[in-house]
């Protein structure tokens, strides 16, 4: 189940990056950062479909998700300004960061839960 979720998570990040890049009028390559994370996550998910590669691929995907969380967590500080209609530089980028944060945090939590369950089995 987790390899399939990894594939979905990778695809969602790629779509998020593509939408952000398009919505910004292709003004900045940094809008593609979610896609740059999504591509290796997708590759890890595809590798994880093979039982021989599953453990390593899933750990790599979890590490990428952790980097995604750490890289976007600062966007939480901009939520009050977004909600109050205050001045926020590049609000689209902040929203994309918050979406990536949410996706990455949920995926990372699912990975940790799966890793703990696998440990208990052994």
Describe what this molecule looks like in 3D.
There is one protein chain. With about 120 residues, this protein is mainly alpha-helical. It has one domain (about 1-120). The protein is about 75% helix and about 0% strand. It has helices at about 1-25, 35-50, 55-70, 80-85, 90-120. Helix 1 runs antiparallel to helix 2 and helix 3 runs antiparallel to helix 5. The mean pLDDT is about 95.
Q: What is the straight-line distance between the termini? A: 19 Å
Largest sheet: none
Number of helical regions:
5
Backbone CA Rg? 16 Å
The run of helices and strands is HHHHH
How many structural units, i.e. domains?
A: 1
Global outline: elongated
Q: What percent of the residues sit in helical stretches (DSSP H or I)?
A: over 70%
From the helix content, strand content and strand pairing, which structural class follows? mainly alpha
Strand content: under 5%
Mean pLDDT over the residues: 94
> Total strand count, please?
0
The low-confidence parts are: none
Helix/strand layout:
Blueprint: H1 2-23, H2 33-48, H3 54-72, H4 79-84, H5 91-121
Which properties best describe this structure?
122 residues; mainly alpha
């Amino acid at each position: 189940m987790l390899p399939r979720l990894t594939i979905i998570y990778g695809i969602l990040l790629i779509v998020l990056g593509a939408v952000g890049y398009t919505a910004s009028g292709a003004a900045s390559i940094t809008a593609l950062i979610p896609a740059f994370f999504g591509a290796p996550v997708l590759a890890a998910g595809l590798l994880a479909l093979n039982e021989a590669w599953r453990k390593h691929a899933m750990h790599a995907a979890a590490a990428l998700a952790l980097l995604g969380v750490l890289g976007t967590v600062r966007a939480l500080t901009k939520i009050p300004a977004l909600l109050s209609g205050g001045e926020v530089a590049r609000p689209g980028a902040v929203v994309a960061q918050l979406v990536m944060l949410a996706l990455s945090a949920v995926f990372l939590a699912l990975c940790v839960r799966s890793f703990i369950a696998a440990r208990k089995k052994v």
